[in-house]
Design a protein that fits this description.
Layout (H helix, E strand, L loop, with lengths): L1 E5 L1 E4 L5 H12 L4 E5 L2 E8 L2 E8 L2 E8 L2 H9 L2 E5 L1 H11 L4 E2 L3 H22 L8
Parallel strand pairs: 1-7
Antiparallel strand pairs: 2-6, 2-8, 3-4, 4-5, 5-6
Amino acid sequence: MAKVLEFSVRTTTGQPLEEVRKSVESAFGFSFSEGEYEEIPAYIHTSLGMTIGLFQWGSDFLLETRIEDIRFLEAAEVKPLDVARISEPIADTLTIIGPFRWRIASDEDLVKDEKFADELEKRMAAESDPRNWPIS
């Protein structure tokens, strides 16, 4: 069984996303590019067969991974992939090296995330309704 890496950590800070990006880049020793992560504007970086996304989600900043390299997907067809979740050491490392306290999502965070996702979905639905479009 092949192992793949995965992590999802977050921080809450009064700083802008740009400052969070700089601290993560410094800790990891790489640069992000502007892009999208799960259809959300984000800073992204590809390494070790995974895409790392840094983005704002409600009042938090999330740093997450997803496997996108086709070779891993093809390998999963032969034998299942074993996911090695490394969120805790990533959160600890970023907290020690950088200026922000990083954590794994708590139950409270997950409830807050669900509420934010619902609000976002409602806002997007309202914006896509032609009755709400401005008249030119």
